[in-house]
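Predict structure. Input: Glyoxylase, beta-lactamase superfamily II, 212 residues.
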Amino acid sequence: MNWKQIPLGPLQTNCYVLFNHQREAVIFDPGGDAHVLKSWLSKNDITPAAILLTHAHFDHIGAVSDIRQTYNIDVYIHEKEQDWLTDPGKNGSIHFLPDSPIQTEPADHLLQGNSSLNVGGFTLDMYETPGHSPGSISFYHKETEVVFSGDVLFSGSIGRTDLPGGNHQTLLTSIHQTLLELPENTTVACGHGPVTSIEAEMDSNPFLNGFS
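Output follows.
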């Protein structure tokens, strides 16, 4: 098992590809520049089996339609954001990309709760981690000791909460009661910027001090 970080789209959102020795993969948050992602997949002879979305803000979904159609694969999203893919107002693209709002077909699978998810030969622990958005999900892959957390937790920072559906206290609760409960050696594959670790953020993230 291995994984690759590929920044994509107008905000260089981190897309991640988790793949196995059979060159099968799941894709997290293809935010744009579908041609870049498809080129990398082709070059490395990797065939994706599904798209998993940590949430549905515009910068995380820009290449969903292209990748889904190219590989004929299913899309998974939290049920609280099921209509964000079809609504440029809710995914924010109408405001941030008024000349090219993002609108795609609904997701094939709606997720909820904390549970185990089996897709494309991969098993991931799925955790609801709202706060940045109401349907934010973090996907933990035990075998590679990595959590794909979207915009919940960053290196030295946390996700913004000033967008519709965001809540600062809810975000802090998600981080402390869910992400920081993972093993300290867990790699945090963030939605933007460099990867980090649970241990590093516990030790030095200034936004997590004084939480109660």
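The first strand starts at residue 2 and ends at 8.
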